[in-house]
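Quarterly update from the structural biology core.
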Amino acid sequence: MSSKKEQTHSLKEDFISKLSANKKHWISLAVLFILPLLLYSAIFFGGKQFLGNDVLQWRAGAESVIEHVETYNEHPLWATNMFSGMPSAVIHNPSSPPSIDSFFKWMGGQTHPLAFFWILLSGAYLFFIVQKVRPFSATIGAILMGFTTYLPIVIEAGHYAKFMAFAFVPWMFVGYYLISRSQKKLLAFFTFALAVMLQLRANHPQITYYFLYLLGFWWIYDSWLAYKKEELWDWAQRTGIAFGAGILGILCSIDLYWRLYEYSQYSTRAGSTLASSGGSGGLTLEYAFSWSQGVGELLTLIIPGLYGGSSGEAYWGPKSFTSGPHYLGAIAFILALIGLFAYRKKIKYLFFGVGSLTLLFSLGHNLPAFNEFAFNYIPYFDKFRVPETWLIATVFCFAVLSVYGVEALFDIAKDKQKSIKELYAPLGIAIGLGVAFAFGSNALLSFEKPGEFEQYAQQVAQQNNVSPDNPQVQQRVQNFINTRLKPDRKEMASSDSTRYLILTLLAGGLIVGFIKRKISKGYLLIGLLVLAAYDMLSVDSRYVNEDQMASDALEAEQMIQQQQTPADKFIMQNIASENGYPYRAFALDRNPFNNAIPSYFYPTIGGYSGAKLAIYQDLIDHLLMDNQTGFNHSVLDMLNTKYITIQQQLPFGGYTQVFNQNNQRVYRNDDVLPKAFFVDSVAIVSSPQEAVNRMKPSANFDPSTRAIVETDDAVKSSVDTTAQVTLKNYKANEITLSTSSEEDQFLVLSEIFYPAGWEATIDGKPTEIYKSNFVLRGLQVPAGEHTITMSFKPTSAIWGGRLAWMGHLILWAAGISLIIIYLKKGNTKSQKD
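Predicted structure, tokenized:
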């Protein structure tokens, strides 16, 4: 038998490959530190910061909570300024127990997002290093993983939680890898628990959910390995460690997720409350599958401009609009193919399989049979929307495969029995695609957005009062698309296709030169690293728009103040009632249900949230707006809506124009009901749908005289001209009223019904809060004089914080124990020496 020496080649050395391991690590970390500075130089060196639309929307929506905290030195857990009031779980949370992520946020300060980029890149680097990957190969992997274009896109939009959640994902897998393969079990336990805790505290369940698929399939893969090696008992112990560490990580963040779980049961993520809406305990299929990735659009993973890049007339993909592609990278693609075809370890199939699965999930309604099955039968799949987001997991998995591809090159080069033929397939596929699209994109692609022709034809037809089928209209629209839209789209596709081809040829040349022993191993790695960095950062820079940045001297509040209108100022001066509470407004002039800016200045019945209360969304969809009159006047009355901002005149009575400046009109609702009021009668209904039916304009519902109550109890009310209710105290989390009446009465409070925390007492004795008028709170009040108190005390707020503190104490005890053990071992070693 030939010896190993006879079966292998010694690879060509250079000064790079001869560097010590420590120097390679320091160089790699220095590169990973510098690259984010280059991408975000305007922030670090130019005195700029991101204040994206979502940041402003969040800050505006959180105003009532922040104001309450500053005034009362307590967190209310309830926001009064949006959607007539809602839990603050998805807006602003109380402070969690301090941890190292608190330090990261403080350290980032005005230089956000740099701190979390460094966390992400160092975690990705360590993830490869623990797998015994070469330092420069690990650096390539970290670059591919950390600079996918999706990250600068979400950062500019202000989706910071999503980015921070992803930043801790590699660390989570470092912990899992140590648990599954290392003998340092306490270190593994602490690392995994800490990483899980940090990832969860970033508070973006969608990202967590996506990467649980990789974690789950990896555990299944490792279980199969343990079975094959007959090491099931050891694997059971390691599984126990992983499970315990995961539970500890969850316990440390339980305050956030208990509150979120509590809220999710009543939010739009649990589905509609109406039987007619087909509520099934999750988002509707159509809503959840909005922004599904197009099948052909998957090519933008490797050729970013193939479908026009970001939104505007250039983008011609199937989504209504997009902020940019999920770019994996040309270098990543060629290396991933090599990893798939040539890497010797079977773990490659794990990452290829999960990457492919999440890629299929990203297609949403463009792969209906597969994804509708997942939507209907996989737990929690129906809780999240925007299927293209799955591609963040795809890119992560394929980036791992790319690193395996780099490592495979060394195996091929060293093994005499292998040759350049091993690379024919991956290089042929990668370069062949480049040739096809660089020279044939005009023939292969239509460059016309689905439904675009019909949309333009409809517009032209309306302008000329003719049918969209008119031949002249059709010819005019086709000419516009062919001469105005397609040329730019073709140019971008051709340019990026050529760019892709050049990069793959350069990478292919390096690889072939290395295999043929013309290029040394150090130069190969540096060459691939430079190409990967250029590839990713040059595309990322398209989505780091300095024009969208603000001076770091500006605060979000200042930018919101700049959007204040004269109508806003008028309402602010007049929104307060004589009884110590503010009325609400309906900002019809500014997309009322997708804009929180008015809510910064005064309470509104609209706002901005991706997860409203389900009953409130049903109110918007089925009751608030009316085809006949524009909106349901009775609903506005009961919601305590005193003012409406609108540009045009209101064509019906009951509203008085009280302000008009530059077509900014404010109307006063002359029939607005007070915050709390007695009704003359009660109609008991058995279902939410029945309540909605009785409240439609056609049902002549008058909230001032009758309450629609969903209950089986025998609640009642009667006409009592002596009945009075006075608001004594109004806070976000506590309301006090005094009442007097000669007969039993039913009291309606213009506050949103939410059973997970709101409690009521009459003269100190608990009483039930009834769901009234579909969204409001109601109370049965006995005759006589009484003091009524409503307070918000959700179970999650009482116990969540206590359990989170307990989890942190356990975690830090494990960390301190780890340090003590390390120090003892160090002392023992010193004594022996």
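The two ends are 43 Å apart (CA to CA).
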